[in-house]
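Chain A, query sequence.
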Amino acid sequence: MGSCSPGGSIAKEGYGYQSVIDYAIIGVCTSTNASLFYGKPRSTVDMGMGPLFERIEPVSKKTRVVTLLREAILSGTIKGGEPIVEAKLAQQFGVGQGLIREALIELEHHGFVQRTPFTGTTVTTLSLEDAQQIFEIRIELEPLAFHLAALRANDTEIAALSQLMEKTRLESQAGDLEGFFETHLSFRNKVWELSGNHYLQQALERVVIPLYALYLIRRSYNREGILQTIVECLEHQDKILDAFRRKDADAARQVAREFLMRMKEYLGTRLVPKVPGPVTGGESE
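Chain A, predicted structure.
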């Protein structure tokens, strides 16, 4: 029976990256039974008593590339503001440049990289002033989204938000910061969608998502402060759902605005250091 070698890493070397990527990472296996499925069965197993397992689709190469680059950014192996060269990554991963481009587009959607026309792609970097300007926009736009969503949300949609809220609660109890901020962003994104104004939703996605990536990149900067932010996020979600259930759009707007104003005040102590210059994945100097 063939096998796949596990593991792989991206290590910094000069301005680029030296990959140690084996066949398991790029999904090239010599046995039909040895594909990388994270320990799950490849297909339905029938032992004379009907199917025991559902068929599991293999993880795509793009997903693996996204995961490895994301981990390298979060660990600080690839620093904030550092350029990402598609051709170099394609060569190191052993995949096409088009697949690398797709992976970077997904990372951009989640706020981890910034793609600039005619300039290229770099890891997201925000200064204190950048973050403050983003919050100035959020404080004006996001409460409107919550106001509109409160008017439109039905019982099914409120139930979906409740499920997301419960998921964030469980993730916070487990100390899963990455899972928490991803789910909390999904909660907010769902509210933006419920507003029914896709221009408002697109504007908020563009300015807010990089901040959530920054929470993950900077989670070691002030862990205690980040944990307190999580507590306040949970309280905020509770109040928002209460307003939605009561169809109180004005209360939803006010709760959102007060929360955002507090988060803006905490920027310099909890997220972005009070020093000039960009924020990177490592500690501030």
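The longest strand covers residues 8-13. The longest helix spans residues 128-152.
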